[in-house]
């Protein structure tokens, strides 16, 4: 598997190159947006790890250029933790994102999950739309529909659903959901995740026969189509 790391912080880029190489991947590195675009479009990579803050052109511009011609999986790396920046990355077509600082073990797990998922197994998507069964998300219009019916979601519910759909088929713990949706370290005394999932489920699943949002006891939640 060939990976491309586009990261201007040279120490971090080398750290990622070394760690990923030790795990059996062939890794190329670019330190700016322009060089990154050139390699991403010409190199035939299986996955791109893309920093947001880059010299020349930023990661969002790199992502747009890549998505215009390729569906290569992209994992965004960003020091920005604002919800709007995360949503923008998803809108531009990123497959997943990871906020710095991060543990290498988590990055490696994300990389492996994206590569396992592969294009045929991922929910159908383009730069602006994602789909699973009869659920559709339009990331530009910030609209969610199921069976053609509009789902009336709050901003947080939409982001929660987007995160679950981006990582469909994966069991997400309450800790991961809290970190990615609420920018918070999970507090065992806080039931914000359970409340949000319950409210989302009441809109996403309760009116329909087929259930997409499942609870995995003792582990977390997963969005997937389990068939009839």
TrEMBL record:
Q: Which SMART domains match?
A: REC, Trans_reg_C
Q: Where along the sequence lies the DNA-binding region?
A: 127-225
Keyword Transcription (UniProt): yes
Q: Which Gene3D superfamilies match?
A: 3.40.50.2300, 6.10.250.690, Winged helix-like DNA-binding domain superfamily/Winged helix DNA-binding domain
Q: Name one GO biological process term.
A: regulation of DNA-templated transcription
Keyword set, alphabetical order: Cadmium, DNA-binding, Phosphoprotein, Transcription, Transcription regulation, Two-component regulatory system
Q: Residues where 4-aspartylphosphate occurs?
A: 51
Cite a single Pfam family from the UniProt record.
Response_reg
Alphabetical GO CC annotations of the entry are: cytosol; protein-DNA complex
Residue span, OmpR/PhoB-type domain? 127-225
Boundaries of each Response regulatory domain copy? 2-115
List the Gene Ontology MF annotations in alphabetical order.
phosphorelay response regulator activity; transcription cis-regulatory region binding
Stated name of the protein: Heavy metal response regulator transcription factor
What organism is this sequence from?
Answer: Azohydromonas caseinilytica
